[in-house]
Amino acid sequence: MSSDPHARVVERSGDSDPGLRRTSNQDRLLAEAPLFVVADGMGGSEGGEVAAALAIEVFREHGPLYSEKDVVTGLRTLVAEANDRIFAKARADSRYQGMGTTVVAALVHDDAVTLAHVGDSRAYLLRGGGLELLTDDHSYVAELLRLGALSPEEAEKHPRASVISRALGTREEVEADVQTVEVRDQDVFLLCSDGLTRMVPESEIKAIAAAAGRLEEASERLIAAANEKGGEDNITVCLFRVALPEAPGRKQTTVIELSVIARAATAERRAC
């Protein structure tokens, strides 16, 4: 991967809020271009915080992996290292037994963004006024929904909506879903914990993001909306906008009047 990516992050914003029902914030956030990560810890207040912090620490520390040619391998390696570190910490200290964390990470490179995720923290793409969910939740309810055992309406109200089927640190090995998205100029990516998506419907997320003038304003409004609807969990939001430079040698399309062409043709004939 080039150290000077074609796609550039031109605007970013990230914020985290404990919500209205929790006494602590187990979410952690990394927003240091070209890498963006959201982690939502679980396993008691202290354990969840530790697991999420360890995951973010691994992603922040291992900068050399970003320069690898194979970005997918690099992100899988980071996920595996974070899983190993959390799992080892839990085994070494009984206070942290059973702790884990979700993770959703986005790495901007070349003309693309590569995503890696485990758990139910999500990534969205905001493009041309639309909102597209890029990740599939690793959760009990999401699996039932994919199998057709639940309707979307039933899934929203299911009592086990917060039970996830895959997390970092709860087992010796974990598999991350990894995908690469080719970007367009001015695409905006949203990473978030389920404290946002369980409270705020996607239609409202899209409307809030579209109406905000700046990404910082969008972050603030999204968190406020989650709290207005009850703030039942920690809420973390990370947004970043990418720009694509004009390709070398690419000429701008120009509209020209026919009369101008006729005069140019006359001048060319006289020159001959």
Word description of this protein:
Helix content is 34%, strand content 26%. The protein is an alpha+beta fold. It has a single domain, classed as Phosphatase 2c, domain 1 (4-Layer Sandwich). The strands form 2 sheets. Strands 2, 3, 4, 5, 6 and 9 form a 6-stranded antiparallel beta sheet that branches. It has a 5-stranded antiparallel beta sheet with strand order 1-11-10-7-8. Helix 1 runs antiparallel to helix 2 (71-92) and helix 6 (202-211) packs antiparallel against helix 7. The longest helix has 22 residues, at 71-92. Mean pLDDT is 87; it is low at 249-257.
Roughly how many Å is the radius of gyration? Answer: 23 Å
Q: Which outline best applies? A: globular
**Mean pLDDT score:** 87
Helix fraction, binned, reads: 25-40%
| Count of helical regions | 8
N-to-C CA distance: 52 Å
* Structural class by secondary-structure content: alpha+beta
CATH-level-4 superfamily name: PPM-type phosphatase domain
CATH topology: Phosphatase 2c, domain 1
Using the 3D structure, state the CATH architecture. Answer: 4-Layer Sandwich
